[in-house]
Specification:
The complex is a heterotrimer of chains A (276), B (292) and C (336). Chain A contains 14 helices and no strands. Chain A is mainly α. Chain A has one domain: Orthogonal Bundle (MetI-like fold). In chain A, helix 1 packs across helix 13 and helix 3 packs across helix 13. The longest helix of chain A is centred in the first third of the chain and has 31 residues. Chain A is globular, with a radius of gyration of 23 Å. The two termini of chain A are 45 Å apart. Chain B has one domain: MetI-like (MetI-like fold, Orthogonal Bundle). Chain B is 76% helix and 1% strand. Chain B is built from twelve helices and two strands, in the order αββααααααααααα. A two-stranded antiparallel ribbon of chain B has the order 1-2. Chain C has 336 residues and is α+β, with helices and mostly antiparallel strands. Chain C folds into two domains: 222 residues, P-loop containing nucleotide triphosphate hydrolases (Rossmann fold, 3-Layer(aba) Sandwich); 85 residues, Nucleic acid-binding proteins (OB fold (Dihydrolipoamide Acetyltransferase, E2P)). Helices cover 25% and strands 33% of the residues of chain C. In chain C, the strands form four sheets. Chain C has a six-stranded mixed beta sheet, with helices on both faces. Classes of the chains: A mainly alpha (276), B mainly alpha (292), C alpha+beta (336). Chains in contact: A-B, A-C, B-C. At the A-B interface, helix 1, helix 4, helix 5, helix 6 and helix 7 of A face helix 1, helix 3, helix 4, helix 5 and helix 6 of B. Bound molecules: adenosine-5'-triphosphate and magnesium ion (MG).
Chain lengths: 276, 292, 336
């Protein structure tokens, strides 16, 4: 019994180490000088410095404009996605929508499309209408993965609300809009919050669309990492600092909303994946 | 049912659904049609004057293109191994952690970290902090164990193993968390009943846990497969598809063709094949799932 | 507010291949307490939901106070409903729940407050107004649902098994109160239940549902004392009526072979002279005793006083009171 517990504990600790190591070590690296980074064996004891952070927040290599780009793109994407996804998910989950099965399947299928298949036509089309390297172009493209995902997540939350809620509201003379607004939405608050978090995370972390369709004006922080890598020399410490700065929002969001994220990942899966 | 109630509800439902649907059609259906159309064109951005209709040329070229066949094979290997690894590891870890009474919360927090990380950052971190020769931690460990030093991302086979490891590292927590939650949701009285029915631990796993987890496992497989088939950023950051074309899965190949070598028409043909593969896999999975 | 009348004619409801209602005609008079009674799956809830406008009809018409509302939205019908699950809005306080139907038609603030206080007082939950539904007991939640329904002074009151989630004692108390409330408000009530005792004690009249049809409508006394079909006879009463095929060994003298005889367990007596029977089981319920008696191959249940209790396995003789016999046609199941 004792031995078994020890083995379990060892495995658990090992798992935590493996999963957290890159981020923790990235944090450590971001506090080293470039010279300390290259030391062999890797040094654990060194004189920490904030130079790298100063460099990535100020001066010629500043990633602040990129952070701003990321905030704008992710924020707008999240806002638009929610405005469109909430009504759509409600219709899909609760109302007598014509061709509901087909519509649901289409939304699901769009979620599976390989982004590389989409980025080529987007590039050609946006270039033609002059929307490459613009916020409207990138946000429009981000909606393609954010919207279907948000709709599906919300559908599973709406399905958890008992149907009698709307029926009672309809009998109480609320009408359909007010039934949705006063009765359903307040009860779906948790699910909506989870969806917002996920959409924001996914938009923030997107890379392929950003690197192909962005440019000097709109250059999200995921792309800006490569500023620190060049053929001649890679600035590992600054890269680590930029990565930590760029990932700080999602890491903090992830840790704060940890419980909800697990729920979001598992909603559907635990219930058998939604019956439709 | 020519009833006003239903009529009103239908109109309301359409009004709510149509904006999202229209946007999705504009941003997915139309571009895909355009993609397929592009695959019949000769578009070379470095030589724009050469453009024109190419018929099936691009597809004929595919057949004789060893780099294409290589990338198709790599896609299958990459998808297959990462999905199997994630599910097997995720399930084993979930079963183990179910036995751990305290500290589950800490493990869950640790598991969140890889998931929320941008894949491109995961690729960069691994490339530098873990796998880089001379200062990566793995190099340090293998040397310390007396196994010697390896160029993890520089040798074709090691590089493939490395990108598979990166993907598995990043997404196994997903399988783990989902399966852990599903395990926790299984009613305990079933296990008690099974115990009374003289099922041993292995039999309980095989006859109760596994069948009851089946829906969750199927969902995990589907979701993980979709992610694996659209993997791009982590490989791009870690190896860029190299060395040579050792880690160049279809996504990378289509990207490099279109945006590095600038032959967009041919790249579109590769992307069309990728689309077909994805849809075929999705179709197979869903018909398998429908069979229950 | 005036109590509404209800007329449903030729109502058919199909869910794809499933026929939930196979042609229903129903009339409820103003101010009446009317129950829909029947076994599970017989179509009671469906009928109620059609009245509420929550479900469309495949065929037929619904009139409320003479007005055709077949296609009217639920909110346009002046109908309130108490759901089996209560359907309280969990994010609103009790008082917000109760006031909701009034707020939806932009009633004046003071009037809403007065109406809420009045409704809450009527069901005695005035002290709970600031709580959320999650902080209430089952019985209290049920009262909130009632208050939400009465606050708007509807013309028609629909209740779908509103007592089924309460414990036995509370169910009895609330039953009485419900009737008192309905009378005080002078409102028409349609009440769905599968509990016959509830239906018999509460209703002015009731309709018995079987397989998507109404098989009998009448006052509780009529339905209980003169069941229209064998099925109704076999459904009502506790325990239900004994059904004896005509010509059965021992009972030939009573009627011919092409009938079915019904006899309530209370009309079965243990006597000195009569048909031979074996006691197979005795179930004691305080003042009364139920006895299972085998007459040849036939099971006859008797409801006896405690003093008459036979021993298990005993051989006894029984007698059926001929004035209490119900006679049904064997082929059609109809009462003769
Ligand atoms: N949405 C539906 N789809 C298919 N069949 C349905 C649907 N709703 C109800 N039915 C069927 O219609 C019939 C009548 O159902 P209803 O709910 O009215 O029964 P009920 O008398 O209220 O039963 P209970 O006492 O169990 O509540 C049942 O056979 C039921 O299976
Ligand atoms: Mg019912």
């Amino acid at each position: 019994m004792k031995a078994r517990n020890l083995v379990l504990l060892a495995i658990a600790v090992l798992m935590m180490l493996v999963w957290t190591f890159p981020v923790l070590w990235g944090l450590v690296t971001s506090l080293k000088t470039e010279k300390d980074v290259l030391a062999y064996p890797p040094s654990v004891i060194f004189e920490p410095t904030l130079r790298n952070y100063a460099d990535v927040f100020r001066g010629s290599q500043s990633i602040v404009p990129n952070l701003i780009s990321s905030v704008i793109v992710s924020g707008l994407t999240t806002l638009l996605t929610m405005i469109l996804a909430i009504p759509a998910a409600y219709a899909l989950s609760r109302l007598d929508l014509p061709f509901r099965k087909g519509a649901g399947f289409y939304v699901l299928a769009t979620q599976m499309l390989p982004p590389v298949g989409l980025v080529i036509p987007y590039f050609l089309i946006l270039r033609r209408i002059g929307w490459t390297d613009t916020y409207q172009g990138l946000v429009l493209v981000y909606l393609t993965f954010a919207l279907p995902f948000a709709i599906w997540l919300l559908v599973s939350y709406f399905e958890e609300i008992p149907r009698e809620m709307e029926e009672a509201a309809l009998l109480d003379r609320a009408g359909r809009w007010r039934a949705l607004w006063h009765v359903i939405l307040p009860q779906a608050k948790g699910g909506i919050a989870v969806t917002v978090i996920f959409v924001f995370l996914n938009s923030w972390n997107e890379f392929l669309f950003a690197v192909v369709l962005g440019g000097n004006n709109v250059r999200p922080v995921t792309v800006a990492m490569f500023n620190f890598i060049s053929l001649e020399q890679t600035q590992w410490a600054r890269l680590a600092a930029a990565a930590m700065a760029g990932m700080a929002p999602v890491i903090i969001l992830g840790l704060m909303a940890q419980k909800h994220i697990v729920k979001g990942l598992t909603v559907g899966a635990v219930k058998g994946g939604g019956r439709r | 049912m020519s009833c006003a109630i239903r009529g009103g509800e239908r109109r309301f439902a359409l009004a709510l659904f149509l904006p999202a649907l229209l946007l999705l059609v504009i941003t997915t259906a139309l571009p895909l049609i355009y993609l397929v159309w592009t695959s019949f064109l000769r578009i070379d951005l470095s030589m724009p004057w050469l453009g024109g209709f190419a018929g099936l040329d691009n597809y004929q070229k595919l057949g004789n293109d060893p780099r294409f066949w290589n990338s198709l094979g790599l896609t299958l290997i990459y998808t297959g191994t990462t999905v199997v690894l994630q599910v097997v590891l995720g399930l084993s870890l979930a079963l183990l952690v179910m036995q751990v009474k305290r500290g589950q919360a800490m493990l869950r927090i640790a598991a969140i970290l890889p998931i929320v990380l941008a894949p491109v950052v995961a690729g960069l971190f691994w490339r530098s902090l873990v796998l880089a020769p001379d200062f990566g931690i793995l190099d340090f460990i293998t040397r310390w164990l007396g196994l010697g030093s390896y160029n993890w991302l520089g040798e074709p086979r090691l590089a493939l193993a490395s990108v598979i490891a990166i993907h598995t590292w990043q997404w196994t927590p997903f399988a783990f968390l989902v399966l852990l939650a599903s395990l926790a949701a299984l009613p305990p009285d079933i296990y008690e009943a099974a115990r009374l029915d003289r099922a041993n631990a292995w039999q309980r796993f095989w006859h109760i846990t596994l069948p009851m987890l089946r829906p969750a496992i199927v969902i995990v497989v589907i979701l993980r497969m979709v992610t694996a088939l659209s993997a791009f950023a982590a490989i791009f950051a870690a190896t860029g598809g190299g060395p040579g074309s050792a880690t160049e899965i279809l996504n990378l190949y289509a990207y490099r063709l279109s945006f590095t070598e600038l032959s967009v028409g041919y790249g579109a043909a590769v992307a069309t094949v990728l689309l077909a593969v994805t849809l075929a896999v999705a179709f197979l999975l869903f018909s398998f799932r429908r069979k229950k | 507010m005036t109590a509404a009348s209800v007329q449903m004619s030729g109502i058919v409801k199909k869910h794809g291949a499933v026929t939930a209602l196979a042609g229903i005609d129903l009339e409820v008079r103003p101010g009446e307490f009317f129950s829909l009674l029947g076994p599970s799956g017989s179509g009671k809830t469906t009928t109620l939901r059609i009245l509420a406008g929550l479900e469309s009809v495949t065929e037929g018409r619904v009139l409320l106070s003479g007005k055709d509302v077949t296609n009217a939205e639920p909110g346009e019908r002046d109908v309130a409903m108490v759901f089996q699950s209560y359907a309280l809005y969990p994010h609103m306080t009790v008082s917000e729940n109760i006031s909701f139907p009034l707020r939806m038609i932009h009633e004046k603030k003071e009037e809403i407050e007065n109406a809420v206080r009045d409704a809450a007082a009527r069901v005695r939950i005035g002290h709970l107004l600031d709580r959320k539904p999650g902080q209430l007991s089952g019985g209290q939640q049920q009262r909130v649902a009632l208050a939400r329904a009465i606050v708007r002074k509807p013309a028609l009151f629909l209740l779908d098994e509103p007592l089924s989630n309460l414990d036995a004692k509370l169910r009895l108390e609330t039953r009485v109160e419900l009737k008192r409330l309905q009378r005080a408000l002078n409102v028409t009530a349609v009440y769905v239940t599968h509990d016959q005792e509830e239906a018999l004690s509460l209703s002015d009249r009731l309709a018995v549902f079987m397989d998507g049809r109404i098989v009998q409508v009448g006052t509780p006394e009529e339905v209980f004392s003169k069941p229209a079909t064998v099925d109704v006879a076999g459904f009502l009463g506790n325990p239900p009526m004994n059904l004896i095929p005509g010509g059965t060994e021992g009972f030939q003298s009573l009627k011919g072979p092409d009938v079915i005889l019904g006899i309530r367990p209370s009309a079965v007596r243990i006597v000195d002279e009569g048909v031979h029977a074996t006691v197979t089981m005795v179930e004691a319920l305080g003042e009364e005793v139920y006895a299972d008696l085998m007459v040849g191959e036939l099971l006859v249940r008797a409801r006896l006083r405690e003093g008459e209790r036979p021993a298990e396995k005993a051989q006894v003789r029984i007698h059926l009171d001929p004035t209490a016999l119900h006679v049904f046609d064997k082929a059609t199941g109809k009462r003769l």
